[in-house]
Amino acid sequence: MKKNAFYLLATLLLASCKARAPWDVVIMGDSFFGRSVIADQYADFIAEDLGVEVNLHKKAVNGQEPEKLLANLRSDEELRQLIRDAEAVVFDFSPGWSNSAELKYLVGTCKGDEDQDCLREALETAKADWTEMTDLLAEVTAGKVVLIHTFTFGDWPYDGYYKDKVTPEQRTVMLGYFHEFQTFQEPDALARGMIVHHIFPPEISDPPPAEYFLADGFHLSEEGSLVVSTLMRNAGYKTTWTYLIWGTALQSLGANFPEVYAAYTEEEMGVEIEIVNYAGGSKESSFLKTLESKQDLIDAVRRAKLMTFDWNPSSVDSAERKFLNGECGGTDNQDCLREDYAQAQKDWLAALNRVIEIRGGDTTGMRQIVMGNWPYMIHYPNIAEEQRSVLVAHFMEMASFLMAEAGARGIETVQVFPGKYFDNPPPDDWIHGVGLTEEGDKVIVEALMEIEISK
């Protein structure tokens, strides 16, 4: 991530760098590792690139199916402690998850519709095993940043394993379930912050060159292993966190606090930050439509480790103009304000709840930005104080609603600006129009830094 002038703000608050300790690397899975030299090559790359000693823990077992690895993750305390202490964990979810079902299918004992019931059951079991396995990894590594590599595969395992033992029709059926699992696996792994490598990458043909395999045509040779270990090397040695920003131009119009906060997080957590910025002034109803139609945004919501967002006050601009012109309706000329704020609350909750739903209910890392009443001094400099008081009262009621709803969902709120400046004019050098100055950015970053970042 590009650093800016405020980078010093973050770095000055951190302790001095420690000498590099050895890296512990845990390798889990099946013969993808057990019959290859991927693990040793990767360990050599780490030692060369980082200048550290590498403790390589090879826990891959030839022929180990996912259910056995899952059982070990549940109950093998030695393995769990190795993972807990590791800087990197590398594992594959063995393509062998479907072996037993495929053999039944090939001999006509799979049962059910088109003799595929056992394949369907194996697929659902694999999804459940993957979910529990990755949940356990998250549990064991909680509170620590760990680099986690996992893999998807091309169709080549079916060429090496079955060779000419199946018909093209049988191969197509079995690959359909294989592909369906990987379609489930990859986005879930990415959403969990894992690095996913496709073996082999698109520029390599499928099936890959024969020299990538041992004599059995299935397990990787030294040359094939080097392709895999190089992919891991090229991914770098820091976990990448997505920082998603959505809401108003407060977070994008000349504001630097998102970049400063990202820089602070990089240093504090030892990660790299990818900023995805969807802030720009869209109303919540428009954002919700974008959220339902733009897959890139959905993916960013799902994988974001950090998120800042704010409500758009322009949702009630029209009602405020009607009020100022005496056209709002009702005995107190405030009906349109009440109606538009009520709709704004519904739209806001719909957008926020949809974001949380996409994240599977997880609100970790989400921070709400709520503006105080200072914009009313800027937007409406010449209105009567009685009118300003009415507008501010509705606005501050909305602010209280936003903070209460966020808090009920476990989301912390940063006020712009904190303390007495939330409902009083801030110092002139904090704002420029409705945007923030460098000093204003600094105040927000300091408030964000007070919120603990969960690993």
Architecture overview:
This protein has helices at 7-11, 31-34, 38-50, 66-75, 77-85, 99-106, 117-140, 156-162, 168-191, 222-234, 257-269, 284-293, 295-303, 317-324, 335-358, 375-379, 385-408, 438-449; strands spanning 23-28, 54-58, 88-91, 147-153, 195-199, 240-247, 272-279, 304-310, 366-371, 412-416, 431-432, 435-436. It is of the alpha/beta class and 455 residues long. A 5-stranded parallel β-sheet has the order 2-1-3-4-5, with helices on both faces. A 5-stranded parallel β-sheet has the order 7-6-8-9-10, with helices on both faces. A two-stranded antiparallel ribbon has the order 11-12. The model is unreliable at 2-18 (pLDDT under 50).
Quick rundown:
With 455 residues, this protein is an alpha/beta fold. The protein is built from 18 helices and 12 strands. The chain is elongated, with a radius of gyration of 27 Å.
Backbone CA Rg: 27 Å
The count of β-strands is 12
Strand order across the biggest sheet?
2-1-3-4-5
N/C terminus separation: 19 Å
**How many independent structural domains?**
2
Average pLDDT level:
90
Keywords:
455 residues, alpha/beta, Rossmann fold, 2 domains, five-stranded parallel beta sheet, 18 helices, 12 strands
